[in-house]
Design a protein that fits this description.
Length: 456
């Protein structure tokens, strides 16, 4: 009997150790470190709660154990080198590869076994946000509500008192005015009454009496009206400060400012074409195929994460992208962007000529004229600090005078490869032709003021 009890106790102890060993499979990593590693290595293609480029990874350890009878060692092999695992003929590895459109997962030989354990712990037991602070906030909110009611009641009483006081003061002032009027009438003499009869009683009488002054005044008013009309005509088509809302909110501050995305990644034709085109939605999808929600730290006033996530969904709707299946449905919708910068039809402007041939010259000229507002990208000379704009605004007036002034003050960059070849035989001639510029050739010297350069 004693022997049975002894073996029974040993059996229970062994069973307990077995359970603890099995549980440790899911608790042998650090979830907080795993969260950092997950965001750095996995978040581009995976989320815990939804499918992206790859499957949702929430509870992946338990799911593989239950559905495929695969342990944590299989996950270690898959994460470190999934290509080698597939090449070995592993059935499930090849099944996953086929299921997700044969998109190979990156290999992570740099991750240690402990790093992978930390990531898997995060997918199994992600840190839960503390709720105590929220509860305390709710309790405080209840007390504040009572205080707010008392405050509002006191403000209403004060407003009533102030209103009654103002009405009383207004009544006193009216009474005083009436009394003063009576006193003035009592003090009028016969001499004053006769003088009142000689006063001008109408505008026509006043004009007949002082008609020469009236003519001068009308002449001045006519000149002012002519100047006003002329000034209005001169500013037709000038829309400096124009800031329209777009059908899909796109913050240049977040993309070009915080994330340092180069202007020409989206506006690729600005460097090699006449027009800087509006990027197609496929350009947006180069990044947003894998970025389905906003996880940045910057928020515009009045905006929250839900707002940005909804705007990303508009991109998916326009391109016909189904994030669940990670495939295009073929059902697309046009996006009616509102154009901001638009030269008149009678004006020729070539982006490539300015961005390629004039890049360094324009940047240098702008920084000399604006030492406290220097630029690092040629685009900013005309379009302003776009990387700080949430909604793009027309930064300059783009008048003919504005362009001519730039051509008169911007020095030609003779060291630019394009200019060096093109003006190889003209440099000395230009220096002799414009000796007053001390060898510095500005754009006006190479035809920058010729009418036919911009109007044809």
């Amino acid at each position: 009997m004693i022997s049975w009890k002894k073996h029974y106790k040993k059996g229970l102890l062994a069973f307990a150790l077995l359970l603890s060993t099995g549980a440790s499979v899911y608790a042998q990593g650090d979830a907080k470190k795993g969260e950092e590693l997950f965001k750095a290595n996995c978040a581009a293609c995976h989320a815990l709660d939804k499918q992206m480029v790859g499957p949702a990874l929430g509870g992946v350890v338990e799911r593989l154990k239950t559905e495929q009878n695969l342990d944590i060692d299989w996950l270690h092999q898959w994460i470190k080198d999934n290509e080698a695992l597939r090449s070995s003929g592993d059935a499930y590895a090849n099944e996953v590869f086929e299921k997700f459109n044969k998109a190979p997962m990156n290999t992570f030989p740099n991750l240690s076994d402990q790093d992978i354990d930390d990531i898997l712990e995060y997918t199994t037991n992600p840190p839960v946000a503390e709720t105590a602070a929220a509860a305390a906030t709710g309790a405080d909110a209840g007390q504040t509500t009572v205080a707010d009611l008392e405050k509002a009641r006191a403000e209403r009483i004060n407003s009533t008192i102030i209103l009654i006081s103002l009405l009383v003061i207004g009544g006193l002032l009216i009474w005083l005015l009436l009394k003063l009027r009576q006193l003035v009438k009592l003090q009028q003499t016969e001499e004053l009454s006769g003088l009142n009869e000689t006063r001008v009683a109408s505008f026509s009488e006043l004009y007949q009496k002082y008609n020469y002054i009236g003519k001068i005044a009308l002449g001045i008013l006519g000149l002012l009206a002519f100047y006003g009309v002329w000034n209005w005509l001169m500013w037709i088509g000038v829309y400096k400060g124009y800031q329209p809302e777009q059908p899909i909110h796109f913050s240049h501050k977040i993309h070009a400012g915080d994330n340092k995305i180069d202007c020409q990644m989206c506006h690729s034709s600005a460097k090699y074409g006449k027009v800087s085109e509006i990027p197609s939605m496929n350009v947006c999808m180069n990044c947003h195929r894998n970025i389905s929600e906003y996880n940045g730290s910057y928020f515009e006033p009045g905006r929250d994460k839900a707002f940005y996530d909804a705007e990303i969904q508009k991109i998916y709707k326009a391109t016909g992208w189904d994030p669940a299946s990670q495939q295009y449905t073929g059902k697309t919708e046009p996006v009616e962007w509102v154009r901001i910068h638009n030269m008149p039809d009678f004006v020729y402007f070539n982006h490539a000529q300015h961005v390629v041939a004039g890049e360094q010259a324009i940047i240098s000229s702008h920084n000399k004229k604006n030492p406290n507002n220097k630029i690092d990208v040629v685009c900013k000379a005309c379009h302003g600090a776009v990387d700080t704009m949430n909604v793009v605004t027309m930064a300059n007036d783009f008048t003919m005078g504005w362009c001519i002034e730039c051509h008169r003050t911007t020095e030609v960059d003779m060291n630019n490869t394009y200019n060096k070849e093109y003006f190889q035989n003209l440099h000395e001639k230009l220096k002799q032709q414009y000796p007053s510029k001390e060898g510095k050739i500005t754009v006006d010297a190479i035809g920058g003021l010729e009418c036919g350069k911009c109007h044809y």
